[in-house]
Design brief:
Helix content is about 35%, strand content about 20%. With about 210 residues, the chain is α+β, with helices and mostly antiparallel strands. The strands form two sheets. The chain has a five-stranded antiparallel beta sheet with strand order 3-4-5-2-6.
């Protein structure tokens, strides 16, 4: 209750007047400070969603406490927003993986303290707004995994330079959103990384490179 009436409530209140035009699909010009406020709100939603299953948490306790105390969005978050034309006006998707990507010939070897779940992908729809939030504490960053068209999915975290015009030049349609929901699995299948098991939990073997 203290969180809902305290720091979380402040995040919600600060973001609400900025989110309404995005949700309604109205033309709006966001300053860098506005973008930072919206990024903070989205980061809050991502972190809250991690508590649905504690075993699938990606953001460690110390980063959650720093976010609560100082409002610092973790540097390994990657947040983008889009305008969509789907009939659905509400939706939520979250998936996590345990992944290490080989940079050379030998599979990487995780340490005991390596997070059990180190990559997550979170997507949600509110009205005309589509949020695409990723986080990677693996040895590869979210930005390295995908080619994203900026005029359809502008990045808002890490913070861009200058102001952001809303809505983006391109509107996403349902097939494109379905591709976004599968983007990590597609990357894994195409890049054919080498794997090794986590000391505490097996990797996501459903995406493992097939045997020859």
């Amino acid at each position: 209750m203290r969180c809902n009436n305290g720091w979380m409530s402040s995040v919600e209140s600060d973001a609400k007047p900025l989110l309404l035009p995005l949700i309604k699909g109205e033309a709006f010009l966001l300053s860098k400070a506005d973008v930072a406020t919206i990024s903070k709100w989205i980061a809050l939603k991502i972190i809250i969603s991690e508590h649905e299953n504690p075993k699938n948490q990606v953001t460690p306790r110390e980063d959650r406490e720093k976010f609560m105390r100082d409002g610092v969005v973790p540097s390994y978050f990657d947040i983008r927003i889009a305008n969509h034309s789907c009939t659905s006006q509400v939706g939520f998707f979250r998936k996590t993986w345990t992944i290490l990507v080989a940079r050379g010939e030998s599979p990487p070897k995780p340490r005991e303290e390596f997070p059990v779940k180190n990559i997550q992908d979170v997507h949600f729809i509110i009205g005309s707004l589509l949020v695409v939030g990723g986080a990677s504490r693996s040895n590869i960053r979210i930005g390295e995994m995908f080619n994203v068209v900026p005029d359809a999915l502008p990045r808002i975290w890490p913070l861009p330079e200058g102001r952001l015009s809303w809505p983006p030049q391109r509107v996403l349609v349902n097939p494109q959103i379905q591709m976004l929901l599968k983007r990590v699995d597609t990357f894994l299948n195409l890049s054919r990384p080498k794997w090794c098991e986590h000391p505490s939990e097996p990797l996501n073997w459903s995406a493992k490179e097939p045997d020859p």
